[in-house]
C-alpha cells in the first residue's frame, strides 16, 4: 500500500512538472532551413512590397526569401538579389526602393528590369570614413517619420576614432542629406524605432559602458564615450550639434554625470552583463495591435552571445526614458543580430556567430517567432512610483501569494562609469519591501520599497507569484529596472 501511494505521488508530481508552461507554448519558433552553399550571416532584414523577405548579410550579399511566412518552412526559397556589398548591417524600404547600410555608405538598390537581381546601385551618402579596422561597423535603422535613416558608427577599436564620425550617430535622408546627430557611441549591435518613431540603439560593454545597454538617441545628445570628441571640430558638426560637451569623469557613476553634463543622456535600460546577455543587438517595437500577444508598444531586443530575445518596458520620467528588462525567448539558432516585426505580427531574427561567438550552436540562422494565441502569465509592466513600484500582470494573480512579502526579493547594483573596459557590479544594496497591495481585479500589485537607489538596476525576483485561474508561476519571474528619476509628487 505504501509503495502504491509513493508511485501515485511520483506520477502526480511528474505530470505536474511536465505540464508546467514553457516559452514554446506561447511563442512558437520556425527555424528556416538555409540551403547548402549560402552563408547567411544576417545583418539586416526587410519585407518587400511583394511579400518576399530581404536578408542582407555580413558577407555583402542580399537574398530574397519567397514563402518566408508559410507555416511549412520547407517551402522557403532563397535567391541571390545583390552581391559585392560591404557588410550589410541595415535594410529599409522607402517608396519601394531598398536602402542598404553598408560599412562605407548608405546605398539605394532597385531591380529596374524585374529579372530578380538588383541592377541599380546608387550611393545616397558616404559622409563618414573608414580606416580598414575590423571594428568599424555601421548599423542603419528603418526610416523615421521624417524620412531619415539613423546610422550608428562604431569606434575604431574600442577606444579611438581614427576617421571622421567614428563614435557618432548620423542621419541620412532618403535624398542624401547628411546630418551629424549625436556623439558618444562605442560599439553598437543594432538600432531601431519605438512605436512613436523615436530612435534607440544598443551599445555593448566596453570602455565607458560597464554593461550593455539600450540607449535613447536624440539630436545633440552625448551617449557616454568620449572617443569621437575630435569631430566636434568639424564645421558640419558645429552647425548641426554645437560645441563639444564636457569630458565625463573617469571612475564615476552614470547618474552623477546627468546633472554635470546637460547633453549626457544615460542608458534608458542597463542590461546586466551575464544575466540577460553579453552583447545586445537588434531592436523592434511591437506595433502589431495584438497579433503578437499582450505587449503592444514594448521593445524587443536581440541578444547575440546568449542567442535570446529580451523584452523592454519603457516609461518617460522627467523627460528621460527608463524602465525594465524581462527575459522573453531563448533557443535561437545562432547569435541574434537583426530583428524585425513583420506585417503579420511575427518577429524575424537573423543570426551569426562569426567573430563574436554565440550559444545558439549554428554558424548562422534565420528564425521566425509566431504567437500561438495563448497569453503567457508575465509581468506586463513595471512602473516606478515615488516610494516603490507598480507591477501589472497579463492575467490576475493569486491575491494571497501576491500580498505575501515572502514572494519577492529585491537587490540593487550599478556599474563604474570609466574608461577601462567594462566594470564589475558595484555599490550593491538590499532595499526592504515594506508592503505589497493587490488591486481588486488582481491585475496589479503596488510594492512600497524602502531603499530605492538612483542610478541602479533594481533586480526584482518574484518566485512566489502564481496566477489566480490556474496557479501557474510566472513564465519569467525576474525583472531588471533601471532607475534614473523618481516621479514628482
* End-to-end gap: 65 Å
Structural class: mainly beta
Task: State the CATH superfamily name of the largest domain.
Answer: TolB, C-terminal domain
Question: How many distinct helices?
Answer: 4
CATH architecture of the largest domain: 6 Propeller
**Tally of extended strands?**
32
Radius of gyration: 23 Å
Main β sheet profile? 8 strands, antiparallel
What is the global morphology? globular
Number of domains: 2
Helix-strand layout with pairing:
Elements: H1 2-18, E1 27-31, E2 42-47, E3 53-57, E4 62-66, E5 77-82, E6 91-94, E7 97-102, E8 105-110, E9 120-125, E10 138-140, E11 148-153, E12 168-173, E13 178-183, E14 188-193, E15 199-203, E16 213-217, H2 235-240, H3 254-260, E17 269-270, E18 280-285, E19 299-303, E20 308-317, E21 320-329, E22 336-341, E23 347-352, E24 364-371, E25 379-385, E26 388-393, H4 399-402, E27 409-415, E28 425-429, E29 432-438, E30 444-450, E31 456-461, E32 478-483
Antiparallel strand pairs: 1-24, 2-3, 3-4, 4-5, 6-7, 7-8, 8-9, 10-11, 11-12, 12-13, 14-15, 15-16, 16-17, 18-19, 19-20, 20-21, 21-32, 22-23, 23-24, 25-26, 26-30, 27-28, 27-31, 29-30, 31-32
Structure at a glance:
With 489 residues, this protein is mainly β. It is built from 4 helices and 32 strands. It has an 8-stranded antiparallel beta sheet, with no helix packed on it. It has a 4-stranded antiparallel beta sheet with strand order 1-24-23-22, with no helix packed on it. Strands 2-3-4-5 form a 4-stranded antiparallel beta sheet, with no helix packed on it.
Amino acid at each position: 500500500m505504501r509503495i502504491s501511494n509513493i508511485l501515485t505521488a511520483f506520477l502526480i508530481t511528474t505530470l505536474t512538472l511536465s505540464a508546467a508552461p514553457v516559452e514554446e507554448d506561447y511563442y512558437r519558433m520556425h527555424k528556416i532551413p538555409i540551403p547548402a552553399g549560402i552563408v547567411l550571416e544576417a545583418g539586416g532584414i526587410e519585407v518587400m512590397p511583394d511579400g518576399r523577405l530581404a536578408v542582407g548579410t555580413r558577407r555583402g550579399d542580399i537574398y530574397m526569401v519567397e514563402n518566408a511566412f508559410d507555416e511549412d518552412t520547407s517551402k522557403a526559397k532563397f535567391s541571390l538579389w545583390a552581391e559585392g556589398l560591404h557588410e550589410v548591417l541595415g535594410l529599409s524600404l522607402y517608396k519601394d526602393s531598398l536602402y542598404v547600410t553598408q560599412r562605407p555608405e548608405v546605398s539605394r538598390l532597385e531591380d529596374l528590369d524585374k529579372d530578380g537581381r538588383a541592377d541599380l546601385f546608387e550611393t545616397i551618402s558616404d559622409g563618414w570614413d573608414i580606416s580598414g579596422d575590423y571594428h568599424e561597423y555601421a548599423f542603419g535603422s528603418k526610416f523615421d517619420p521624417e524620412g531619415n535613416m539613423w546610422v550608428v558608427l562604431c569606434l575604431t577599436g574600442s577606444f579611438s576614432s581614427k576617421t571622421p564620425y567614428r563614435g557618432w550617430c548620423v542621419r541620412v535622408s532618403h535624398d542624401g542629406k547628411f546630418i551629424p546627430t549625436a556623439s558618444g557611441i562605442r560599439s553598437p549591435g543594432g538600432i531601431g524605432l519605438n512605436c512613436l518613431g523615436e530612435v534607440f540603439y544598443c551599445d555593448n560593454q566596453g570602455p565607458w559602458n560597464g554593461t550593455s545597454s539600450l540607449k535613447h538617441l536624440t539630436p545633440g545628445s552625448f551617449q557616454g564615450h568620449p572617443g569621437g570628441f575630435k569631430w566636434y571640430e568639424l564645421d558640419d558638426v558645429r552647425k548641426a550639434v554645437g560645441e563639444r560637451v564636457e569630458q565625463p569623469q573617469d571612475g564615476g557613476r552614470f547618474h552623477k554625470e546627468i546633472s554635470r553634463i546637460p547633453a549626457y543622456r544615460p542608458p534608458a535600460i542597463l542590461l546586466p552583463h551575464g544575466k540577460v546577455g553579453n552583447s545586445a543587438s537588434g531592436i523592434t517595437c511591437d506595433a502589431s495591435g495584438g497579433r503578437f500577444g499582450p505587449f503592444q508598444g514594448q521593445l524587443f531586443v536581440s541578444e547575440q552571445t546568449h542567442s535570446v530575445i529580451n523584452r523592454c518596458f519603457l516609461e518617460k520620467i522627467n523627460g528621460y526614458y527608463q524602465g525594465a528588462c524581462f527575459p522573453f525567448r531563448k533557443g535561437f539558432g545562432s547569435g541574434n543580430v537583426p530583428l524585425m516585426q513583420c506585417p503579420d505580427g511575427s518577429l524575424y531574427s537573423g543570426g551569426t556567430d562569426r567573430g563574436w561567438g554565440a550559444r545558439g550552436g549554428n554558424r548562422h540562422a534565420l528564425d521566425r517567432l509566431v504567437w500561438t494565441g495563448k497569453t503567457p502569465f508575465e509581468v506586463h509592466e513595471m512602473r516606478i512610483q515615488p516610494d516603490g513600484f507598480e507591477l501589472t500582470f497579463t492575467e490576475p494573480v493569486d491575491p494571497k501569494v501576491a500580498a505575501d512579502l515572502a514572494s519577492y526579493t529585491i537587490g540593487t547594483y550599478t556599474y563604474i562609469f570609466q574608461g577601462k573596459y567594462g566594470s564589475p557590479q558595484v555599490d550593491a544594496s538590499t532595499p526592504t519591501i515594506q508592503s505589497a497591495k493587490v488591486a481588486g481585479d488582481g491585475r496589479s500589485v503596488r510594492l512600497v520599497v524602502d531603499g530605492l537607489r538612483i542610478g541602479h538596476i533594481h533586480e526584482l525576483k518574484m518566485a512566489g507569484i502564481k496566477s489566480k485561474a490556474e496557479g501557474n508561476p510566472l513564465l519569467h519571474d525576474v525583472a531588471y529596472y533601471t532607475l534614473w528619476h523618481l516621479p514628482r509628487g
